[in-house]
C-alpha cells in the first residue's frame, strides 16, 4: 500500500508532539496528556427506595404472548439533593486542595440552587433495579425473609438483586454471590436428612 503525501505531511506536523510524548514516557514514566484536554467526571448516587419506582407487567406481550416487564423509574427531588450535595463537597475539596490551578470543573448542574441537571439526558440509571421482592421481617412490607424464603410460598426461595431493600451505587454482583452462597448453605441444612448433613 502506497504512502500518500498527505500522510507524510500529517506525520511531519505531529512529529514534535510524538517526540515529546516519547521523551516524557521515557523520562517520567508517564503518559503525556494533551493540553488543553477535557475529561468527564461521573457521579453515581444511591436512590432512596420509593414505591413509585417499580417494575410492572406491561400490556405489550412477547413472541410467546407473555406480558413483558416495564420499568417505571423517576428521579426525585431528594435524589437530586444527594447529587447536588456531593457535587458541592467535591467542588469545595477541589478548590481547597489547589486542584483548580490544574483544571477547572464545569458542572452541568447549578451548585447555588436546587436545580435539575442540564441537560436532563446527562442523568441516567445503571441498569441494576432492585427491591421488587424485597427482604424484610414483615410480610406486609416485604416478600422474602432473612433466609430469602418467600412469606407466601414456604418452599420458594429467591436469589436475586430484587431482594435488596435498598440499592447501593456500585455493582451488586458480589453481594448477590454472597446471598446465593448463603442461600445454598441454608437450603443444604434445610433439605438434609434429620440429624445429618447433605454431602457436597
Provide a quick synopsis of the model.
The protein is mainly alpha-helical and 200 residues long. Helices cover 32% and strands 7% of the residues.
Defining traits:
200 residues; 32% helix; elongated
Topology:
Layout: H1 5-28, E1 54-61, E2 67-72, H2 77-96, H3 173-191
Antiparallel strand pairs: 1-2
What class, by secondary structure content? mainly alpha
The count of strands amounts to: 2
Strand content: 5-15%
Number of helices: 3
Report the radius of gyration as a whole number of Å. 27 Å
Low-pLDDT residue intervals, each spanning 5 or more residues: none
Please outline the major beta sheet. 2 strands, antiparallel
Task: Spell out the helices and strands N to C.
Answer: HEEHH
**What is the helix fraction of residues, given as a range?**
25-40%
Taking the alpha carbons of the first and last residues, their distance comes to: 62 Å
Principal-axis shape: elongated
- Biggest sheet strand line-up: 1-2
| Arithmetic mean pLDDT | 84
